[in-house]
Amino acid sequence: MTILLIALGAAVGAPARYLTDRAIQSRHATDFPWGTFTVNVFGSFILGVLAASTHRLDPALAAGLGTGFCGALTTYSTFSYETLRLLEGRASFYAAANIVASVAAGLGAAAIGLAVGTAVG
Amino acid sequence: MTSDPGSERPSDGERGDDQAPVDPGVDIPSRSDRIETRARRWDVLVAIAIGGVLGSEARYGISVALPHPADAMPWATFLINVSGCALMGVLMVTITELTTPHRLVRPLLGVGVLGGYTTFSTYSVDINQMLAVDRPGLALIYVVITPLAALAAVWLGANATRLLASHLLDRRECSDDSS
User: Fold this and answer.
1) Summary count for chain A: helices (H), strands (E)
2) What region does A2 belong to: left with phi over 0, alpha with psi -120 to 50, or beta?
3) Least CA distance to B90: which residue of chain A?
4) Nearest-CA residue of chain B relative to A63?
5) Chain A residues with CB inside 8 Å of B121's CB?
6) Are residues A33 and A20 in contact, defined by beta-carbon separation less than 8 angstroms?
7) What is the mean pLDDT for each group of 10 consecutive residues in chain B (179 residues)?
């Protein structure tokens, strides 16, 4: 059951990342990868809420939403590849900003998510 | 660019410096074009979903095999993210510089499998939980080494692939000369 729910979550999360990224990247003219930034920050927030709510969630459902959906929605491989592209394109300021901003915003979003999940429970 | 959303690859910062991103909705294609575009869009999404499921199940398998308490280094997530980045470097050089693959290869393997395999959300939450169990030193180490190792891995993957390809190409040219 856990494996099935993870598959279901991932089957929604991965296309959601692609569609979000496309929608965002087509609406601004800079080289900054806002699309990946957005899904990583949003996914960190959702997983934070879930992590603080595990005691009242069915474990298989929590795995489907957390490991499946949030895991597939967020990505480290595209994040690092886009950073490498910025470095190779001599945009080292954007590359450094991408790392610092993504990590800081991801941590902050997860902290807010954990606080929200704890407050609700 | 607007007629084939499958070959457009916005997901990985592939747009060149001189190419502004183009909204695929700006021009109005004919009815048959629209139907074809819609079908192509769907097969891209299906490829991404299938790849995402495979990558996520692989991550789940590894994280079950290597569990970690909140006050210890999450080696499973670290290894998953770093290996996924190395594979992304290999894949992107292979499909953008060395070959012209089928248009669903990148959605399936890059956006789907490697995107589903690696995770940013678990990284963010694990660091918060290390702080919650009073392991600020470990949190600091983990927060810094993951992006550095990920960047080194994608660089190594990309450049090792370029090096190998040019080496193979040189050998082929040498054998062509001698024949």
Assistant:
1) 6, 0
2) alpha
3) A81
4) B60
5) 40, 43-44, 46-47, 66, 70-71, 73-74, 106, 110
6) no
7) 41 41 48 62 95 98 92 95 98 95 96 98 97 96 98 98 92 72
Cα gap B56→A105, rounded to integer Å: 23
Average pLDDT over chain A, rounded to an integer: 95
A14 Cβ contact list (under 8 Å, min separation 6) = A72, A73, B48, B49, B51, B52, B53, B55, B56, B111, B112, B115, B116
A3 contacts B60? CB cut-off 8 A: yes
Q: Which residues of B touch A82 (CB under 8 A)?
A: 12-13
pLDDT tens digits for range B99-129:
999 999 999 999 999 999 999 999 999 999 9
| Full-model pTM | 0.85
ipTM of the complex: 0.96
d(CA B93, CA B143): 28
